[in-house]
Design a protein that fits this description.
Aldehyde Dehydrogenase, Chain A, domain 2; 2 domains; six-stranded mixed β-sheet; 18% strand; Ald_DH_N; disordered N terminus; seven-stranded mixed β-sheet; Aldehyde_DH_dom
Length: 588
Amino acid sequence: MRFSCRAVASLLLSSCSLILASDGETSASFLDQPPPVIKKPIPWLPVVPNYENLEWKDVTVCCRRSNPSVDTNTCADNVPLIVEPTTIGSMPQFTTDQALEVLKQAKEAWKGGAGVWPQMTYQQRIEAIEHFFVELAASREDIVETLMWEIGKNRKDAESEFDRTLQFARSVIDAIQTDNNFNGTWQEIGNVRALVRRAAIGVILCLGPYNYPLNETYATLIPALLLGNICILKIPTIGGLVHLQTMEAFAKSLPPGTIHFIAGSGRETMPPLMKTGEVDGLAFIGGSRAADDLIHQHPHPHRLKVFLQLEAKNMGIFLKDTFEKKNAAMLGHAMDETLLGTLSYNGQRCTAIKLLFVPSDDAPKFVAMLVDRVSSLVVGLPWDQKDGTFSQITPLPTPQRVEYMRELIDDAVYKGAEIRNENGGNLIGGVDSTLMVPAVLYPVTPNMRIYHEEQFGPIIPVATYDDLETALEFGQSGEYGQQVSVFGSDSDSVASIIDRFSAVYGKVNLNCQCGRSPDTLPFAGRRSSAMGVMSVTDILREFSVPTVISYKEQNGLNDELLQGTQLKSNFLQPVTRTSLSTIRANRE
């Protein structure tokens, strides 16, 4: 779709984002921001011979303004695009042989559990990871800027992702320092004394998503490292540039061979690694089909420790009583939570609410309220602001994501749904833009793709029900089982939903949007949504196995043996709390 300059301006103004001053000059929120230039990391981890001579593929993103100061009152209708793609860096394309060489180096670093990193004490590994985050903090602004440009995350959300990543890591370290499974406490069971500690698995292959390339990836990577595993990180095709900006910090903090990076085609590099049978654990956040394909490549899948976070089709259920006059405040709160739940980061979250069920009689009122809220959102580029609010709807990361959104919208409209908000589904900025106005689709029915498929984008489908059983059956018969949000105050209905869904979903949210936080709570899913549990404590169990040291007392001989052994064994060393200032002093 192509817009004239004036049409683009109209869209921008109606979407309340990119505002032109009355004299035709660009307002403060409309100033162009020069794109970053992401440099090639030196060194690449691990040391890949002649890695700079690999094929490097440009990373092209949307969007840079091509004419930020245009006067929309006088321009002709054939003025070119207001935004255009731009290149901000490049990514090496590893071959199969190079990927296998990386795996070889990882196995050498693991050395059957006798390598440098797995043989370090918990305390030594904690201090190394703490030092890594001290080093990484110096690159915070560069990483935030890259997140904005490459995946369209607004500044506030990009800063939040960086900061939350560090906080999650700090919480994981706190868990290690306080949990007896890691710190180690001897227990007596009859005449047996035993100590249980968690031990590493081996070589872990980590694949993270594009939408939270730092936070989601590090939520598995950092715990796996802390436990003594050797990690291979497959850099995602989209959202991967931030990982280039971390290599120097890793190189300064961890022993050589502890972490390895592979970039390029996943289809060319990942299956060969799995086929060797030398990958001991898989941490995968992405689509279930790709996860299944990888697991099936392993010759001994029963030996593969698997952690998966996959798709979701989380629904929001509005109970009938939500629309009663006495519950006006509750409805307003529910609408606010729904807007956040459906469109935060353009709906590109596994925990986003992706299908709404509303009583048929109340649906018109609900849709009108929803459209009103959607129209008030700030739509623009990630660094744009209006009245101090950063853009709430930003460009999608690739044209392919736009095409998929259009397919779902067109299918729904063809089968009877309507786009209820003005300009819903339209692009701002021309044919090369990926900045899409959110689309509210109503009514959505089971014969439409959007009813079943995870859109992972700025589309809000609204379905209706005459009998609550319609929504309950959708939940129980669906392919996914991550979370559900229930809005209402009818305790009988809420109790029934909880009872029905306790064996279907990993989390039932009452009068609030779906989400992962707080990170101390288990984040799980059923069916095709997950395998394994994430939290600051659960994730440690996913990348380790319990190892028991035990003995039977024999006239004090074993007690004496253990006293000497515990002083000399790295595995049995206690964990103590260490301040960042102490870590810095130890490194200097």
